[in-house]
Design brief:
By secondary structure, the chain is of the alpha+beta class. It has a domain at about 55-185: HIT family, subunit A (2-Layer Sandwich), CATH 3.30.428.10. The chain has helices spanning about 5-10, 35-40, 50-55, 60-65, 100-125, 175-185; strands at about 65-70, 70-75, 85-90, 125-130, 150-155. The chain has a 5-stranded antiparallel β-sheet.
Length: about 190
């Protein structure tokens, strides 16, 4: 919603689900109508503009890449849920997990495990949210290019998706976070 004047919303009528025909249930609901723009428009880039295809051609610092493998690489999320939010992406532009090769899925798993070890070491996190949103309908921000999220969590963090305030406090700059994680990443001896 960005910057707004509270007075312009003062006269809006608040709609409750209790006013409609329904069978009562035990769920609490948080209505977020401002998200409909994202849902309807999707904001999906064309394949030639895919940030996950473009990133490997940049320097690690510019692309926020912390590690490169043979089939996949790891980078910081440009719009993180928490400090140290990493993404594991195959180099190949493939949309769905079941379209990835066995080599890509194996390396994604290995890089995810290493990312967890490194994040525990450099940030002392208490846990992780790990997952993939497959397809635009499932909420994938970049639906055309497979990527796995690794979100470090701390006991007292403010959750990874604050809707109410529309603001997320990220205590470290992306460049600093990238440098710290990249420095903590184990070096692989060439075979």
């Amino acid at each position: 919603m960005g910057n707004y004047d509270a007075d312009e919303f003062a006269d809006l009528e608040v709609e409750s689900s209790n006013d409609f025909a329904a069978v009562p249930d035990s769920f609490q609901r948080l209505w977020t109508p401002h998200r409909i723009v994202y849902i309807e428009n999707g904001q999906q880039p064309e394949e030639h503009e895919c940030p996950f295809c473009l990133a490997p051609s940049m320097t690690d610092e510019k692309a926020l890449i912390v590690a490169r493998g043979e089939h996949c690489y790891v980078l910081l999320n440009l719009f993180p849920y928490n400090s140290g939010h990493l993404l594991v992406c195959p180099y190949r532009h493939v949309a769905m997990y079941d379209e990835a090769t066995p080599e890509e899925t194996m390396e994604m798993a290995t890089l995810t495990q290493t990312a967890m070890e490194v994040l525990r070491q450099v940030s002392n996190c208490d846990g992780f949210n790990i997952g993939m949103n497959q397809g635009r309908i499932a909420g994938a921000g970049i639906a055309g290019h497979l990527h796995q999220h690794i979100v470090p969590r701390w006991e007292l963090d403010s959750n990874f998706f604050p809707i109410i305030a529309g603001t997320k406090a990220i205590p470290r700059l992306l460049g600093e976070t990238r440098a710290e994680i990249a420095a903590g990443w184990p070096t692989v001896a060439p075979e």
